[in-house]
Amino acid sequence: MDWFEFIKTALTGSLHSIWQMARIILPLMIILELAKDMHILDKIAGWMAPAMKFFKLPKEGAFPLLIGLTFGLAYGAGVIIDSIKEGHLTWRDLFLINIFLVLCHSVFEDTALFMSVGANGVVILISRIILAVVVTFALSRWSGLAKLEKLLGNKLMISHCSHCGKGDHIG
Predict the structure, then answer these.
(1) How many domains, the chain?
(2) What residues pair up with 169 in beta bridges, in sequence order?
């Protein structure tokens, strides 16, 4: 086996893949950051508020859900934690938003990345959204959710931030 050729091929292929991802992710992140700074995302979250009733969620859940859908789980988690600390979301709200986002997050970026490797982006996007809506709707109507909340709801912890020391028991 020619190790030099193997390393060269692996390195070239990896750099090509990184370049493809960067061409997709960087413009998307710039557009999303501009939309956030121009408060376009706040307006869209306001439009989503009526749809939140479909899941029996408060209108305050629209912004964390929108952020998770567009920016992904890491940034969405920060917004969700802030909403909890501000008292806008209950355990039930958090559970349903997280279920939705586990199934359908970072829709623009993920869809574009899958399309770059040849997948059908429309099929991926629509199937993720439908699955998230169906599962979240079913759980929002599930009678066992109240039992689960009684069992786990008072154990919601927000860990302490290593930088600012914020975080405490919510419940």
Answers:
(1) 1
(2) 157
* Domain housing 130: 28-170
pLDDT per residue as tens, the chain (171 positions): 788 998 999 999 999 888 887 887 778 678 767 877 888 877 877 888 788 888 888 888 888 888 888 878 877 787 788 777 778 788 888 889 999 999 998 888 888 888 888 999 999 999 999 999 999 999 999 988 888 888 876 655 555 555 555 555 444
How far is Cα 110 from Cα 22, in angstroms, rounded to an integer? 12
Residue 113 lies in a domain: yes
Domain-located, residue 21: no
Q: SS3 of 170, please?
A: strand
| Residue 148 forms part of a structural domain | yes
104 is a domain residue:
yes
User: What's the number of CA atoms in the CB half-sphere (13 Å) around residue 78?
Assistant: 6
Would you state the structure tokens that stand for residue 103, as one six-digit string?
A: 């199934």
Task: Answer yes or no: pTM beyond 0.90.
Answer: no
| CA separation, residue 160 to residues 87, 89, 95 (Å) | 17, 19, 20
**Is residue 101 packed enough to be buried (19+ CB in 10 Å), middle (13-18) or exposed (0-12)?**
buried
24 near 109, Cβ under 8 Å? yes
